[in-house]
Amino acid sequence: MDDRDPFAPLRFPSAARPLLGLTVLLVEDSRFASEAMRLLCMRSGARIRRADCLRSARRHLQVYRPSVLIVDVGLPDGSGAELIAEAAQTIPRIGLIMGISGNDQSRDACLAAGADGFLEKPLRSIAFFQELILSHLPQDHQPPTPRVLHDETISPDTTAYRDDIAHVAHLLSAAEDDSVLDYVTQFLEGVAVLAGDTPLRAANQSVVAARAAGQPLRSDLAHLAGLLQDRIADRVAI
């Protein structure tokens, strides 16, 4: 179950790449958020694999055991808290299990399920990411010398953002029940926050508020759909 290659050269954390030697399994349905995490891991020395749903993640975990498991809460086939609870009970346990969400209210659910910590989107700072991961790792995974703090942020490829938007637009056009709309609005909240797309986030929150108040959704959904099409057609700079 260990993902380490016994024939690969030994790799130890260094001041410049403090997460060298770690493998991260990211369970995340957003391509844009996954690209952000890929850049953070790459700049820190960690390898990364991705699963986009609970089913895919469970298949991964049947084959190998990552050093770090990072699980998004809102997934297309259920709550990431389910997977966190399962992973927390597995023996031998994964060294570090983290929940991640654009909604800070998900923190308590992740920790109650057995997560060691929580990452709140948007996550762009390399130094903050490294510090948070290292704070949960044992001493033998710490860099041997003072760490080089990268006061830098990462910038994910906006192509991945448009892929996410196209995915949501397709779901929205075919939405037939409340569960699909639940998924669409929570997904959009996360990617809009990460992209800093304030108009799209505001439109998405208007849909959420109208649903909560039991109000008609047609005009709010039409406005949201129009913003999605603008981004797909590249009429809006991200």
From TrEMBL:
Keyword Lyase tagged: no
Modified residues (4-aspartylphosphate): D72
Coiled-coil features, chain-numbered ranges: none
Keywords linked to the UniProt accession: Phosphoprotein
InterPro entries per record: Bact_response_regulator (IPR050595), CheY-like_superfamily (IPR011006), Sig_transdc_resp-reg_receiver (IPR001789)
Boundaries of every Response regulatory domain copy: 23-136
Xref: SMART domains: REC
Keyword Phosphoprotein: yes
Pfam families reported for this sequence: Response_reg
Name recorded for this polypeptide: Response regulator
Protein species of origin: Seohaeicola saemankumensis
